[in-house]
Amino acid sequence: MNKKLLANLLESPKPIVTGAQLTILLGNTADARQSIIRQAIREGFLVRLRRDFFLIQLPGKEAPVDSFEISTLLYGPSYVSFESALQFHGWIPEAVYTTTCATTKKAKNFDTPLGLFAYKHIPIEAFHMGLTKTFVATPWKAVADLIYVQKRSWKSMTDFCGDMRVEEDSIKESDLELLKYLSEHYPNEFTQHSLKRLLQHEH
């Protein structure tokens, strides 16, 4: 393992490093840099997630990989949404094996050693609505994004809960004011109308 690279990776505050950062860290010629990077990959210090994007795995830094944190770094601007966010908040019971994210850029998928990361495009005006500080969509924001991308719609809150297997208690404890706000301000008429139907039949 290249000592200069190892020293810099040990000091990295983030679990990833990009090709551009490695160029700054290593200098040298392109061939020499690639040789060092290939060696680091062979020895398991770096894991290539996509082109010019690597996960750092070093002795003494074997903390569990946070796929949500990785997702926002892998392709951005983005945040965790859709089924991943609903499962995270305990709204849906099924395990979600793909990390699903919303982005203002074009839709894209990355099949990595950490699993599949799927990014779906949403309007830029909707990006900051209903986000937590850790860049995970709140439940109703995740539902709004899902409606927008998948063109989903339900006749009533009961139909929504039955189809998505959401418990009634989750609805009662949810932020219905945010649902109302999204039904009026999400920048897509179909999404607004679909959310308003849920509000009209909320029980």
State the main characteristics.
single chain; 203 residues; alpha+beta; 2 domains; 4-stranded mixed β-sheet; 3-stranded antiparallel β-sheet; 10 helices
Tell me the layout of helices and strands.
Layout: H1 3-10, E1 16-18, H2 19-26, H3 30-42, E2 46-50, E3 53-56, H4 67-74, E4 78-80, H5 82-88, E5 98-103, E6 108-112, E7 115-121, H6 139-150, H7 157-164, H8 168-172, H9 176-185, H10 189-200
Parallel strand pairs: 5-7
Antiparallel strand pairs: 1-3, 2-3, 4-5, 6-7
N-to-C order of helices and strands: HEHHEEHEHEEEHHHHH
What is the total tally of β strands?
A: 7
Shape: elongated
Structural domain tally: 2
- SS element count, helices: 10
State the distance separating the first and last CA atoms: 61 Å
Oligomeric assembly: single chain
Major β-sheet strand ordering: 4-5-7-6
The parts where pLDDT drops under 50 for at least 5 residues are none
Task: Give the biggest beta sheet.
Answer: 4 strands, mixed
Determine Rg (CA atoms, Å). 20 Å
